[in-house]
Structure formats: C-alpha cells, structure tokens
C-alpha cells in the first residue's frame, strides 16, 4: 500500500489534464482512484505512471491517458447513464466508469481476472457495477440497450453484434485492427451507424471464441 497514493493519483490527474483531458468528472475520477490497487505488488511503484502495465494472463491494465480519453469521449457524446464495458481486466477502467456514469456492465472472458476485479471494486465501495464472465463479442443481450459501449481490447474487425445493443443515439468506442489499430467511435442513428476515426492506438486483442 502506498501511503501517499492520493498525492500520486492527483499528480497523474494533473498530467492527464496537461495532455488534453478536459472533463472535470473524469479528472476527479482519476485523482480519487488508487491505481495501485489494480496491479501486482511488484508493480505498485509504477502504478501512477502514465503507462500500460502487465496484469498477468498476457493482459495489461490500459494506459491512464487512454482510459481517461475514452471515458471523456463517451461523456462528450452525451452518454450519462448505462454503459457496457468489454474487457474488465484489472477493473481500473471499470472503476473510472463507475465514477462517471450511473450504471456499468462489464464483461470479461478470463474468470480469474473478473473475480479479482470484482473484489477490488467492492473494496472501493463501487456498487453500481455488474460483471459477467463471458465472451464480449456477444455483448450483454439481456441487459441491452446501452447508451455507451466501451471496448478495451482490439477487435480484428468491427463487432457488429455489439452495435445492435446500443440505444438509438448511443455511442460505441472501440480499438479496431490487428498490427495497425485505430480507435473508432460509432454513433447509432436508427439503423444508421456513423464511424469517426479518433487516433491510432495499441491494445491487446479482443479474443474470439472460448472463455477461460
Ligand atoms: N480495461 C482493462 C483492459 C484490460 S486488457 C484494464 O485497464 O485493466 C483487455 C481485457 O479484455 C483482458 O482482460 C482480456 O482478457 C479481455 N478480453 C479479451 N477478449 C475478450 C472477449 N472476447 N470478451 C471479454 N473480454 C475479453
């Protein structure tokens, strides 16, 4: 446990602000969330650096800047209430979403990661999150539609099934591609889906098929 984590988290939030993250609610969420909770003991000294870090099982906790930016993009698009996250991983992005939206649904394909994330969020008293062990390509049909969907692993191609789980006017943000990935924002308007390219990114792959 880092004694002065609040100072470290505040410094990280200030850095992200300098890098262009403007939404005050997102900045406050970063400043109030102990990122060292979400990594192994041996990596805790790096928890407040603006970098992705390994979380085991070949997965990573995303870079804080990208976590903040993706959250901000959903808010800028008007999303407030009900958000679906694909790829819970460490649960850090989930915690940030829990502080910025009313209700969060999160799907993870690796059971061990899902359990660990669930325990962490309870420790932080974040109870507006429900989690599911499952294949994110399928989304969460029984809880659909969602105002916002955020995918935190790169899909080789656009996960069309997820788009149908958006509300009319809903927004999905997802990294798409394999070696070369782009962060894409898709806005649903009735049966029409408009795509915007946001920026080049690098995420671990959104695995297709069996869950572990
Ligand atoms: N937001 C997380 C990112 C973790 S990395 C964090 O910052 O910690 C991406 C996560 O997506 C991994 O945990 C991986 O297991 C998960 N994932 C990959 N393919 C998936 C799929 N098809 N369904 C659900 N989760 C998936």
Short descriptors:
binds S-adenosyl-L-homocysteine; 212 residues; 9 strands; Rossmann fold
Describe the structure.
With 212 residues, the protein is α/β, with parallel strands linked by helices. It has a domain at 54-201: Rossmann fold (3-Layer(aba) Sandwich). 29% of the residues lie in helices and 28% in strands. The chain has six helices and nine strands, in the order ααββαβαβαββαβββ. Strands 5-4-3-6-7-8-9 form a seven-stranded mixed beta sheet, covered by helices on one side. Strands 1-2 form a two-stranded antiparallel sheet. The longest helix is centred in the N-terminal third of the chain and has 14 residues, at 5-18. The model has no long low-confidence stretch (mean pLDDT 96). The structure holds S-adenosyl-L-homocysteine. Residues 59-62, 86-87, 89-90, 92-93, 107-110, 113, 135-137, 152-153, 204, 206-207 line the site of S-adenosyl-L-homocysteine. S-adenosyl-L-homocysteine (SAH) binds next to strand 2, helix 4 and strand 4.
TL;DR?
This protein has a domain at 54-201: 3-Layer(aba) Sandwich (Rossmann fold). It is 29% helix and 28% strand. It is built from six helices and nine strands, in the order H-H-E-E-H-E-H-E-H-E-E-H-E-E-E.
Largest sheet: 7 strands, mixed
The secondary structure category is alpha/beta
Strand content: 25-35%
State the CATH topology of one domain: Rossmann fold
Radius of gyration: 16 Å
Distance between the termini: 30 Å
Mean pLDDT: 96
Please give the CATH architecture of one domain. 3-Layer(aba) Sandwich
Q: Please report the total strand number as a whole number.
A: 9
Biggest sheet: strand arrangement:
5-4-3-6-7-8-9
Give the C-level CATH assignment of one domain: Alpha Beta
């Amino acid at each position: 446990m880092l004694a002065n984590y609040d100072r470290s988290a505040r410094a990280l939030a200030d850095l992200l602000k300098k890098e262009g993250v403007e939404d005050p609610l997102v900045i406050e969420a970063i400043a109030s969330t102990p990122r060292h909770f979400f990594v192994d003991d041996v990596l805790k000294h790096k928890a407040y650096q603006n970098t992705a870090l390994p979380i085991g099982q070949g997965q990573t906790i995303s870079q804080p800047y990208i976590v903040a930016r993706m959250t901000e993009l959903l808010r800028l698009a008007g999303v407030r209430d009900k958000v679906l996250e694909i790829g819970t991983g460490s649960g850090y992005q989930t915690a940030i979403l829990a502080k910025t939206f009313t209700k969060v649904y999160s799907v993870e394909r690796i059971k061990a990661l899902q359990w660990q994330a669930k325990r962490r969020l309870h420790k932080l008293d974040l109870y507006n999150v429900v989690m599911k062990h499952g294949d994110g390509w399928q989304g969460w049909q029984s809880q659909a539609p969602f105002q916002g969907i955020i995918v935190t692993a790169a899909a080789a191609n656009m996960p069309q099934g997820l788009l149908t789980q958006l509300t009319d006017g809903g927004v999905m943000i997802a990294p798409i591609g394999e070696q070369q990935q782009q962060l894409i924002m898709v806005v649903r308007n009735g049966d029409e889906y408009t795509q915007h390219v946001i920026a080049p990114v690098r995420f671990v792959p959104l695995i297709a098929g069996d869950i572990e």
